[in-house]
Structures are given as structure tokens and as C-alpha cells.
Amino acid sequence: MKRELAALASLLCLGAAKPVLVPDVSERQVQIVYSFTGADLLLFGAILYPQGRAPDRPPDIAVVLKGPTESILLREKQKVAGMWVNADSARFRSAPSFYAIASSRPLAQLVDARTAAIYELGLDGLQLSPTSNALPEQQQRFEQGLIDLKRRAGLYVEDAHGVEITDGVLYRAHINVPARVPVGRYVAETFLIQDGKVVAGAVRAVRIDKSGFERFVSHAAHRWPVSYGLVAVALSLAIGWAAGQFFRRG
Q1: Which of 11, 32, 91, 111 is the most exposed place for a label (fewest CB within 10 A)?
Q2: Which domains are delineated in the chain?
Q3: What is the mean pLDDT of the segment spanning 210-235?
Q4: pTM exceeds 0.85 for this model
């Protein structure tokens, strides 16, 4: 019994010897209304060190804001006889709809490729879960194409110097959420990195949802798709008829 208690005490001491992250987010819930032009989320927190003493060489921080995953079919177009047609395609089963990462230094200086893939640190470490049987070279081309499309849409972002650490204890990072961001449950992850290893991690949930009339339209489109389509067509016809009557009178 004494040996078991001693072993348990030693394990507790070992666990207490690791630093602990205490993170938070400026907004736990972001509401999208008709005037929504984007949001600036502040991810901040503190590093609690064993016995309250920071190491001689402070560790680095990487923060990630990740949106809900989605299945994406990516098609490649080719020009045949002067016309653009669909050629090869690839499907990705679990690509994040939004991904932004900020770090205190470039990721290549913090972790190796294996660690980046395990924790999905950086765009090169994303696990997109391809489902096609394409050759590795072709699959890599599609993955790079998907990441490039998301980058240009502002949905995939990397900031190599986006985390500010104060006195080796407090950290903060700003992540911009664009206006066309998908709705759903987001995850804000914070990683404490030292000597190429992730020594601590913490997670906070963020909800991005539509509000007001936008919420009603989105809810109606998903719950009653047929009725929503008929109403949309009827409204388009009514607006077109009204416009025609107005210009005819003019």
C-alpha cells in the first residue's frame, strides 16, 4: 500500500512539473447579421510554470482557430477544343471549412514535419482525408490546389509572427474572421512548444451563428428546401413583374 501511495505521489509530482496553459477567447459566440463585415477574435491567456518560475529560454506559443469540417469535391478543368471541361477530380472527406494559425515564430523553427502533422500545425500539416485513389503526385497537386483556393478566399491563414508573449508568461494573438466565414462550432486551440515538442495544450469552443432574418432564411433553406426554392422562384417572378410594370409606366 505504501509503495502504491509513493508511486501515485511521484506521478502527481511529475504531472505538476509540467507547465499549464490558461487560455481564453474575447468572444465565445459570434453573431452574423446582415451588416456583418467580419470579426477580430483575441486569443489570449497565461502560462503557469511549476513553482512559478519561467525557464531561462521561454517556450513558444501557437494558436489555432479551426472551423467545422466539410466534405469537398475538387474538380480540375482542362481546355479541350477551345472549351473548358471538367477533367480529374478529388474528394476530401474532412477538410476544415476555416483554419487560421498564429505563432510566435515560424512553424518550421518550432516543430518538425511529423509533430506538425500530429497536431495539425500549419497548412502543410492539415489532415484533409482524401478519398480518391489518385497517385501521390496527383493527390498532392489537388491538396495544394484546395489550400490555395481557401487561402485566396481568406479561409486559410498563417501568421508566423502573430503571437505576442509578454515576460514569458502572458500571450495574445489576433485572428481575423472574414465576413463569408461558415457558421458552426469552432475550436480555439493553444499549444505550448519547447525544444521542438508540444508540452501543453488547451482548447476553448467558439460558436459562429447567424442571427435575425439571416438565421430564419438559413433555417428555412435547410429544413424546408422545396418550399424555400418555390418561394424564392415566386419572389423572383414577382419582382421581375413589378419591375416590368414600373418601366412600362415610365
Answers
A1: 11
A2: 16-210 (2.60.40.1930), 212-250 (no CATH)
A3: 54
A4: no
What residues pair up with 152 in beta bridges, in sequence order? none
Dist CA 74 CA 142 (whole Å)? 7
Q: Does residue 59 surpass a pLDDT of 50?
A: yes
Counting every residue written for the chain, the total comes to 250
- pLDDT reported for residue 30: 84
Q: Which stretches does DSSP call E strand in 125-244?
A: 156-159, 163-166, 170-177, 184-194, 197-210
Q: Is the dihedral of CA 162, 111, 137, 134 positive or negative?
A: negative
Calculate ∠ Cα 161-162-165, nearest 5°: 90
- Give every CB contact of residue 117 below 8 A, 6+ residues apart in sequence: 125, 127
- Separation in Å, CA 2 to CA 6, 10, 100: 6, 12, 49
